[in-house]
Amino acid sequence: MRRRDFLAAGGALFLAGCTTRSATPALSTGSSPTPPPSTAPSPVASPTSSAPPTEGTVAEILARSNVPVLCFHQLREFRADDSAYARTLITPPDVFRNQLLAIRDGGWTPVSAPDLIDHLRFGTPLPERALLLSFDDGSATHATVALPVLAELGFPAVFFPMTVVLDKPDWLSRDQLRELERAGMTIGAHTWDHQRLDRISGDQWPQQLDQPAADLAEILGHPVDLMAYPYGVWSPETLAHVAAAGYRAAFQLADATDPDYPMLTIRRVMPPPTWDGPALLGHLDADF
Question: N or C: more exposed end of the chain, with fewer CB within 10 A?
Fold first, then answer.
């Protein structure tokens, strides 16, 4: 599988050092202990009872880490003042729609972020050719452009907004976050103001990790425990803070999952706006 070629073609940048191993604690990946056998007669299980799922080992999670996760940013037409770099992060609406239509027509099935997390952690089955759609930063176009297409096609997705931009012009509002969730989308955190988490100092961790989760929980009325790293980058120190802040999974932009903490370094790729539907399908089919 040539995921490295796919990532490079997709224009994912800022990834140096992403394969560093971490010795910091993260999510538990060990199996639950098996209780000793009982000598008492076993009660008849009720029709609604079920045993809790058994968490996979690191090796099992790594073996399941082959589901493509696509990452989009702004969905709008190019402007004359857009830099060359900005144009790698901007997908014109017609291109975006054609890419999603190609995903549907090519036999791929978008799944929700919680379903992917359950698959990775517990081995919960997913459809054949499953993938996850994700959207970073919090552009207002996620509600005005992405949501109508997702709703039309019946596709779930996950959105990772910065909280500093909420309710500002051209960015998502709090009401739009609730609208996205009512439509079946998942909301995760993307820090407060998009700082690289491999460069911040100790006193910035609460502002960048804890406060965004608390703010989103207040907006949505329930805990938020997924996040995406700004610029897709992290460090060994980052993983410890992400785990301590209560996130059960985190998404990066790199070609390697951390071999010890795969739930905190789930890979994503950015389809560039230069890919039409057939080009996107060709890369998915070749590399996944």
Answer: N
Q: Is the pLDDT of residue 51 over 90?
A: no
Centre a 10 Å sphere on the Cβ of residue 58 and count the other Cβ atoms it contains. 17
Q: Identity (one letter) of the amino acid at 52?
A: P
Whole-angstrom distance, CA of residue 144 vs CA of residue 75: 9
> At a CB cut-off of 8 Å and minimum separation 6, what does 77 contact?
92, 93
pLDDT digits (tens, 9 = 90+) for 240-250: 999 999 999 99
Q: For residue 202, what pLDDT band results from cuts at 50, 70 and 90?
A: confident
How far apart are the two ends of the chain, measured CA to CA in Å?
6
Which of the 8 DSSP states describes residue 79? -
Which amino acid is it at 104? Answer: R
Q: Any idea how long the chain is?
A: 288
Half-sphere exposure of 45 (CA within 13 A, CB side): 5
CA distances from 29 to 60, 148, 174 (A): 9, 37, 34
pLDDT band at 42 (very low <50, low <70, confident <90, very high): very low
Residue 73 CB contacts under 8 Å (≥ 6 apart), including other chains? 89, 90, 91, 135, 136, 137, 139, 270
Token reading at 7: 């990532």
HSE, side-chain direction, 13 A CA sphere, residue 262: 23
Q: Please, are residues 277 and 14 in contact by the beta-carbon 8 Å criterion?
A: no
Pairing state of beta strands 186-187 and 69-72? unpaired
Indicate whether 62 pLDDT > 80. yes
Is the pTM of the predicted complex or chain greater than 0.85? no
SS3 at position 99 = helix
Tell the residue number behind the tokens 């989103």, with chain if given: 216
Measure Cα distances from 36 to 39, 41, 46, 52 in Å: 10, 14, 22, 17
> 93-105 and 277-287 are packed helices; what angle lies between their axes, rounded to 10 degrees?
50
